Amino acid sequence: MIDRSIISAQNDALHDDLARDYTALGDKLSRRGVDIDAIKDRARRFSVAVPSWGTGTGGTRFARFPGNGEPATIFDKLDDCGVIHGLTRATPRVSLHIPWDKADPSDLRAKAEEHGLGFDAMNSNTFQDQPGQVHSYKFGSLSHTAPATRAQAIEHNLECLEIGQKIGSKALTVWIGDGANFPGQSHMGRQYERYLSSMKEIYAGLPDDWRLFSEHKIYEPAFYSTVVQDWGTSLMTAQELGPKAMCLVDLGHHAPNVNIEMIVSRLIHAGKLGGFHFNDSKYGDDDLDSGTIEPYRLFLIWNELVDAEDTPGLDLAHMIDQSHNVTDPIESLMVSAMEIQRASVQAALVDRAALAGYQDENDALMASATLRAAFRTDVEPILAMARLEAGGAVDPVATYRASGYRAKVAESRPKVSGAGGGIV
Amino acid sequence: MIDRSIISAQNDALHDDLARDYTALGDKLSRRGVDIDAIKDRARRFSVAVPSWGTGTGGTRFARFPGNGEPATIFDKLDDCGVIHGLTRATPRVSLHIPWDKADPSDLRAKAEEHGLGFDAMNSNTFQDQPGQVHSYKFGSLSHTAPATRAQAIEHNLECLEIGQKIGSKALTVWIGDGANFPGQSHMGRQYERYLSSMKEIYAGLPDDWRLFSEHKIYEPAFYSTVVQDWGTSLMTAQELGPKAMCLVDLGHHAPNVNIEMIVSRLIHAGKLGGFHFNDSKYGDDDLDSGTIEPYRLFLIWNELVDAEDTPGLDLAHMIDQSHNVTDPIESLMVSAMEIQRASVQAALVDRAALAGYQDENDALMASATLRAAFRTDVEPILAMARLEAGGAVDPVATYRASGYRAKVAESRPKVSGAGGGIV
Amino acid sequence: MIDRSIISAQNDALHDDLARDYTALGDKLSRRGVDIDAIKDRARRFSVAVPSWGTGTGGTRFARFPGNGEPATIFDKLDDCGVIHGLTRATPRVSLHIPWDKADPSDLRAKAEEHGLGFDAMNSNTFQDQPGQVHSYKFGSLSHTAPATRAQAIEHNLECLEIGQKIGSKALTVWIGDGANFPGQSHMGRQYERYLSSMKEIYAGLPDDWRLFSEHKIYEPAFYSTVVQDWGTSLMTAQELGPKAMCLVDLGHHAPNVNIEMIVSRLIHAGKLGGFHFNDSKYGDDDLDSGTIEPYRLFLIWNELVDAEDTPGLDLAHMIDQSHNVTDPIESLMVSAMEIQRASVQAALVDRAALAGYQDENDALMASATLRAAFRTDVEPILAMARLEAGGAVDPVATYRASGYRAKVAESRPKVSGAGGGIV
Amino acid sequence: MIDRSIISAQNDALHDDLARDYTALGDKLSRRGVDIDAIKDRARRFSVAVPSWGTGTGGTRFARFPGNGEPATIFDKLDDCGVIHGLTRATPRVSLHIPWDKADPSDLRAKAEEHGLGFDAMNSNTFQDQPGQVHSYKFGSLSHTAPATRAQAIEHNLECLEIGQKIGSKALTVWIGDGANFPGQSHMGRQYERYLSSMKEIYAGLPDDWRLFSEHKIYEPAFYSTVVQDWGTSLMTAQELGPKAMCLVDLGHHAPNVNIEMIVSRLIHAGKLGGFHFNDSKYGDDDLDSGTIEPYRLFLIWNELVDAEDTPGLDLAHMIDQSHNVTDPIESLMVSAMEIQRASVQAALVDRAALAGYQDENDALMASATLRAAFRTDVEPILAMARLEAGGAVDPVATYRASGYRAKVAESRPKVSGAGGGIV
Q1: Which residues in D59-164 belong to E strands, given as ranges?
Q2: Whole-model pTM above 0.95?
Q3: pLDDT tens-digit series, residues A296-333
Q4: What's the gap in Å between the CA of B196 and the closest CA on chain A?
Q5: 8 A C-beta contact, residue B141 and residue B127
Q6: Which residues cross the membrane (chains A, B, C, D) (predicted)?
Q7: Which of D100, D181, D322 to mutate to test the interface with A (most CBs of A within 10 A)?
Q8: Chain D contact for C233, CB < 8 A?
Q9: What pLDDT shows up at residue B352?
């Protein structure tokens, strides 16, 4: 963990400038009729879950280039998550991936509590074969043609529910790699029916206070078709399963040019929006750091969420899902959490009464300008002040670097060497 | 109309070669256990509707370059449709567009009967302002913020129902240009609710034996968002409206890379596939001639349709929707109808028992090869024989050119000069 | 023209708040080692040309919905451009389109001088047929198979050079719609050779102090292939023509997902970047207002331009090219010019020494953060102060609205009614 | 190796039907003025190189699912390549990848000769770290900021030249993963200059009768920008390097919707087309089996190649580059080679005189129909007869399966278990 004294020393050095910037911004916002402290409180209430697997260096099918001090166990990963939350105060929950993170539940809870962390949605894995696994997922899992393979995949998901209950999770996210690489390889209709049938068995095992998230993706690892290819199929699935089944939107899982904020709006209309996997992308499921490629898109999504936040029953699970290939994962997760938080705060600055007026009058220019005015407000002083008051760091990356954390854990964690990806 | 003697002369010259090719193909197919005559009968039963507007030269926002003998009235257009059906025997119905095709219903019926034609789905138009129109559709129609504008658009659709009933149509296709060019211009949720509410009023006026087709499109003429942007929204709309509301798929209305045959399969699962607007595209809604850009994609869509053709309740409306900018529209519509027919016949040649076996065994290579074997069968002799036996032309384009039809109508139809498109 | 007193009244009301915000921002920037006045001077030096045709309401192939007070002549358009420049002080040049803007050159110059305007690049038009034109461009212009059609298109471009010389322009932009709608329609190699040959004739007529801009576009109005489809072909063309031939980049003319800032960097390397057509887009050549869809992309392009601004020989022509379908074109052009200016100023705030250091050390996270820190700086006070000091409006849109300009010109300009686009 | 007697037995059973189909097709083609035997000879002369790495099961970043009898060494791979060529007679050369295929050159040559195989282009690998490698390629190789890393990557490429010379290769293909995951991570201009400088050093070491292939790719493994992102950059690189540097086109390395056959035409114009990496794709660099997703696109590319085949100096290197994730790689490579061969033969059937006439007259409909008529000719009897006469199998997949080859090698090759990809 980062020593409190390091955080304080860093914060102290930045405090005066922050206070000045906060005051200037507060003055500006008050002229717009906005109370900066109320916005700051909103920033403090913001949280997004961190994926355990995101703490390790990611890779591509071509290669993986690990860094120093890679976490070797889920307990190492929880330590890293503790650092992330400690400095940003924005990531109080961790999302586990089974079987990668399998461990004694009481040990998991103890380690999490040590860092003030809780557990978010469970993630099952039926897109890889594990050592000793009886049936291969090479040709699918929940939608496989063989009943025994489907049963094995269902069983694995039920086990995730079991583990999750022991650690306080309340949701299961199901993402499968099932699909086809060739036209004709799978009968699309029957494949989907098998998938639905398997999902119904999982749903049947879902505790009453849990939710089941269906996650769509247009392609990869299957390159001709995927079983849950878009939000339409995800919606249809959630409708057939029942009220506890909801749709989860990963920002990188769409066709080029697709208007994601519109999908968000439609799923809200359908009463089926369950949550997000945040990341950014330029081409496909690039899994880049949130807010680094198209920050305005992230803002527009939050614009829909803030607009709808009083919708009865809307209860969203926000998670990060990224692959950190060329950065220190702790740094990327901290920055990403803060970029998502930034977008949520900017969206809260939208003058909604004015916007509604412009929309009613079809004043497209001023409506658009109203959104941009909120977006271009530099809310960094608000985010920093919220962190400071919550016990975090004004500048989490600088503080993290000053702490020498990575070098320290590198001493005890096993060294990992570079490796090829999945291609050969 | 094309003189019978011209058709016969052309057919006679081609007959012997056709007979030889038909026999050779029949021999080959019989070795695969396929009866060529049964396939030929299927080809004869095939039909696709022709859009009245497709008989005129189309254009882009930059320009339109009309040809000689452009049809000036709906009656000219029906004459052209008569030629198309006369030569191909594959297009027995015409789809009208209101108000472009407004005329005395009994005159319409008389002219259609003269050519042995019937009427397919009606198409309403609320994406343009007509002379004398009270409320502009500049900012939307069925989803407009102003109740009076919505009422006008609803009224127009109800009028389409009325006209359609008088000429024997059984369906209304609703495609709107409503959307937004700027983030913020429209409140996406409320805009969709207004659209739904309008559609419900139209649905309420729908005769019992009619169907209402909801057509989605990702963009154009709106360039940031459209109200019915994809099949997910179209499905949700059809679900909310009721059993007579179905989804219509235009092949050019999707995001890049989207797997359209999969959408077809999903809509069949949902019991909501209503029909198609056929065309081809490389970039956006290019409205190119069917089968000229990605013929295998067209085949894969038909593969799904043939596979599901015994599904209870599946009753599809097949229509062409293209823009013929650089060809004689009559020629393009004939060729397009035959390309769609070709794909349907090739799909009927798929060895479905073998395919199902390969799918069950996850023999992806042979499953894929099974589809390709059907696709690469040159079924031209089957199509030509079906046309010949039905009284059409073995080679419709050559026969049409030999007839001098276009030059003849150019004498009586008013000359139209080139014009700019919508940009200035 | 907008009365000076209206501008002053509006500015006076905003002055104190602006001064306060400018001071607060100056304080913040000085802590980063940035002199706000130097940045303000840069903002004042910024300029972008306005397209004459952009002052009229644009449309799509489906429809065009004109507004009140549409400019009827090039002189009306120059009046509108005068308003735009008068309020923003950022658009001192107008780009003409021939034959749309053909008029007596001395009248053009007189009207422009009245508004303190000059003329930017000339634009030729061989994508439409004009009344009385001998050869049609339906099947191409500079690359047409018929020598006479090519000669006519060349002649038109030479005429543009002639007109341009009389009004003080120094560049010709050539964009053609030539291409094909069907595979096979054109022989791609020979079509390009014909294009090159025509361009060489135009180049031969280019005055010594002029430049010829080659503009690429992936599709539309041709939907299978276009002759100058991408920057690779544009570069090859400019290389074959000679040193006065340069490449022009329109932001909406690329395939989905393409990294435009990288093309900018490559063309700078090649010594062939000539200028830009600014606009924004989500799907295709949407021609939306600059900076309204992906503002960070606009910033990243300017990041390349600011980085390379000391490159010997780099002399860029910046123009807006948009279609204003749902807004008052004057408002859209003002806002767009300011958004482009904003991006240029934000890019000037990038700490390039720090960035270079992070790049050398492969500190991807901090390099990326360095760009974002500049981007999220709200430079509105700088832009507004620059306008104020240059005699423009602090808030151009509000001032324009207060002036009642549109209503006034609507009294004298002919009323235009809505019309269909190019489809039928 | 597959026993001759197995091939003969399979061929004998198919011979009579093949002869009948060949005769019928010959009859049909002769009516078009085409000599089937001349086309068959062309089919026999066709060849495409096989990638050594393609004989192993591929994977994605999520997982790899190996099959039975995976090749463990380059000698196993050459055995598999021998089977592929033995049955198809279309793949007489193998392309090696260094360091994966490093071995004693004389052993390599001996094994290749055993199978009647030669060696095609060498492939270097600077996108992965190898055990013991001094400098990591995590942040680039030939364009790395550190001179020592670049020197190491250059040295590796020079070693590839050395190995290649010993085994009779005549070309080096350079594909690098260098790029960036974040805006700002790399200075795009300087990064490209470093790349060019490294390439010049490699080029300096190129033997006189060798060629250097530059291969572009829009993204992956870098997800924001890649150094050689498109054919424009590849062309510029080849121009700067010199006459032995050529551009290589991988069909899956482009932005969505890009017209690849047009790039082929442009590179032919520039005198810089060097060769291909064949595969098929629907979304990104999917590396699917050639001809299985968009067979008409493959045909259109071959249409350009056949059209230009008499261009002086045009000498193309055809290679397959695919990832076989769900099929037996030997089967996929056989089928892919035959699909590429099929497209080349179909393209040879295009009536070029008629096509040129239609193009000159702008008869788009008939020009397009001329291409489709060639494409839909089922040339399978030609391909099969060419194989038969060359000593191959009429039906390579059936013969391969009948031979039991995979089961046999599985007995001696080490078993490999499933594994995760690069993500964790």
Answers
A1: 63-64, 93-97, 118-123
A2: yes
A3: 999 999 999 999 999 999 999 999 999 999 999 999 99
A4: 11
A5: yes
A6: none
A7: D181
A8: yes
A9: 98
- D398 burial via Cβ count (<10 Å: 0-12, 13-18, 19+): middle
For chain A, say whether D100 makes contact (Cβ under 8 Å): yes
- d(CA B367, CA B355) in angstroms, rounded, equals 5
D184 to C368: CB separation less than 8 angstroms, yes or no: yes
Is residue C27 less than 8 Å (CB to CB) from chain A? yes
Nearest of A164, A184, A186 to residue A176 by alpha carbon: A186
User: Of D135, D71, D128, which is closest to residue D103 (Cα–Cα)?
Assistant: D71
Please tell me which residue of chain B has the smallest CA distance to C66: B138
Question: pLDDT tens digits, residue range B63-95?
Answer: 999 999 999 999 999 999 999 999 999 999 999
Please name the member of D187, D224, D362 whose beta carbon is closest to the beta carbon of C139.
Answer: D362
Domains of chain B: 47-352 (3.20.20.150)
CA distance A168 to chain C (A): 34
Q: Are D336 and D295 in contact (CB under 8 A)?
A: no
- Which of C259, C285, C309, C368 is the best mutation test for D, with the most CBs of D within 10 A? C259
pLDDT for residue C418: 72
Q: Which residues of A373-397 are buried (b: 16+ CB within 10 A; e: fewer)?
A: bbbbbbbbbbbbbbbbeeebbbbbb
Instruction: pLDDT band for A238, please (50, 70, 90 cuts).
Output: very high
Residue A287 is predicted with a pLDDT of 98
Q: Is C377 on the interface with A (CB under 8 A)?
A: yes
**D382 in B contact zone (CB under 8 Å):** no
Report the alpha-carbon distance of residue C367 to residue C362 in Å, rounded: 8
**Cα–chain center distance at C218:** 18
- Between residues 40 and 79 of chain A, which touch chain D (CB distance below 8 Å)? 53, 56, 58-65
Strand pairing category for D419-420 and D63-64: antiparallel
**CB atoms closer than 10 angstroms to residue B9:** 12
Give percent above pLDDT 90 in chain A.
97
> Which residues of chain D does C232 touch, with a Cβ-Cβ cutoff of 8 Å?
230-232, 235, 263, 266
Neighbours of A194 (CB within 10 A): 22
Sign of CA dihedral C275, C277, C282, C285: negative
Judge contact between C336 and C54, C-beta under 8 A. no
The distance of Cα D424 from the centroid of its chain, to the nearest Å, equals 30
**pLDDT at position C421 over 90:** no
State the average pLDDT for chain C.
97
Residues of chain D with pLDDT under 50: 424
Q: Which two structure tokens, joined as six digits, stand for A418?
A: 């570079």
Query: B-chain residues within 8 Å CB-CB of C291?
Result: none
CA dihedral C126, C130, C135, C139 (to 10 degrees): 50
B263 CB near a chain A CB, below 8 Å? yes
In chain B, residues with a C-beta closer than 8 Å to the C-beta of D402 are none
Can you give the C-alpha Rg of chain D in angstroms? 22
Both structure tokens of D122 = 């060498």
Residue A56, token pair as written in the block: 């390790």
- The pLDDT tens digits of the residues spanning B234-279 come to 999 999 999 999 999 999 999 999 999 999 999 999 999 999 999 9
Tokens (6 digits) for C226: 């276009």
- Inter-chain residue contact B376 with D378, CB threshold 8 Å: yes
Rounded Cα distance, B195 and B150, in Å: 9
Q: What is the pLDDT of residue B1?
A: 84
Give pLDDT, residue B418.
72
**Mode of pairing for the β-strands spanning C63-64 and C419-420:** antiparallel
**Chain C CB within 8 Å of residue B134 CB:** no
- Contact state of B61 with C63 under an 8 Å Cβ cutoff: no
Determine, for residues B232 and A229 on separate chains, whether the beta-carbon distance falls below 8 Å: no
Query: Two tokens at A416?
Result: 């990992």
H or E segment at C180? strand C179-180
